[in-house]
Amino acid sequence: MKSKTSIILLSLASGIVLFALGGCASVGSTNTESLLSAAGFVVRTPQTNRQKQIYAALPAYKVERATVKDKVFYVYKDEKAGVAYVGHEPAYQR
């Protein structure tokens, strides 16, 4: 009887840990977007074919540095939401 109770408690504890870890992953992602917005990144949805091609080539959930016409900016692709967070150097430094 004691062994059966121990197995049930261990299974329950394992389930709680796995649930908590899964919840942390989604909170971390939301936290990243909140931090980017607070730092001054703006949310952009790709509209043109060229923007959609660039968006598709970006790695998801990683800040990437880019230079266009001697201007540096940073892009974070939120693949689930289908948007990109775009900011310039001051926003990135914040």
Q: Could you explain how this protein is built, in words?
A:
- The protein has helices at 2-39, 49-57, 89-93; strands at 42-44, 63-68, 71-78, 83-88.
- By secondary structure, the chain is an alpha+beta fold.
- It has a 4-stranded antiparallel sheet.
- A hairpin with a 2-residue loop joins strand 2 and strand 3 (71-78).
- The longest helix has 38 residues, at 2-39.
- The termini are far apart.
- 7% of the residues are buried.
- Mean pLDDT is 77; it is low at 2-27.
Please describe the topology of this protein:
Layout: H1 2-39, E1 42-44, H2 49-57, E2 63-68, E3 71-78, E4 83-88, H3 89-93
Antiparallel strand pairs: 1-4, 2-3, 3-4
How would you concisely characterize the structure shown here?
By secondary structure, the chain is an alpha+beta fold. 55% of the residues lie in helices and 24% in strands.
Oligomer: single chain
> What is the structural class?
alpha+beta
Q: What is the count of DSSP helices, taking H or I runs of 4+ residues?
A: 3
Spatial strand order of the main sheet: 1-4-3-2
Helix fraction? 55-70%
